[in-house]
Amino acid sequence: MYALAAAKLNKYDAVADALFAQQSSWAVNGKLEEAVAKALSAAEMQKVKALAKDPATAAEVDRDIAQARQLGVTRTPTVYVTSKGRQYPIPPGTSYPILKRFFDELLSQQ
Amino acid sequence: MRYLLIALRLILAVVFGYAAYTKLSQSYLVFAMSIDSYQLLPEGAVLLVARWLPWLELAVGIGLLLPWGLRISSTIATLLLAAFFAIMVRSYVTGLGIDCGCFGLGEAISPGTLIRDGILLALTVVLTVFAFLRKDRNQAASESASVSASWQRTQ
After folding, report:
1. Structure ipTM
2. Which 8-state DSSP code applies to residue A91?
3. Which single residue of A13, A36, A40, A88 could bond A44 by disulfide (Cβ 3.0 to 4.6 Å)?
């Protein structure tokens, strides 16, 4: 919700990175806003909080959740690569050299 | 007992065959990503295992259906499943949050996958024990018949 709201200020990556980096703490103490605030200025934080309450943002989250359920996503982050109509879920923790080989192979088939 | 043995061989052959099929029907690099996420092997070993493990699984699946060599195929199946099970338990306990990679991508290691693999491991152990007992019994019966025949000849 916060990351999508921040996307409207072109701050999606900063907020998403902050959320994932601090997931272990906010998942336990529930202080999500503190994690988001670390990636934004005070003014941006106020705008993001307002945007997060917007029904359009909630609808976007609902659409994302529906798509994730359709794909069988069970955790975050989950990365899918689509090539020639085929979807590949990328296992978490895959190292760069192996991932690069996989992408190179997909690109060579284009 | 005979039918139980046949059922065990069929079930495990299908499981190993299907596991091999899901890996061989796509690029070996897809399976390599699954192996790599366990963070146990260096890149070269990951690629080697990704290329050859599905063929070994296929060979074991076929071997379980053959009328001979059950001791070997069931022992290899047991060793493979014991290794898979141990690695999966380690990954689950350490909280790696990765995929199993057992039957293709996208299946996270969970209590369900651990129970399934634990049951499969138990079945292979039972099959291996049966395979060795059966052979021993056949050998014992054959030796007994031969001893009996020689005793009758001496009478």
Report:
1. 0.74
2. P
3. A40
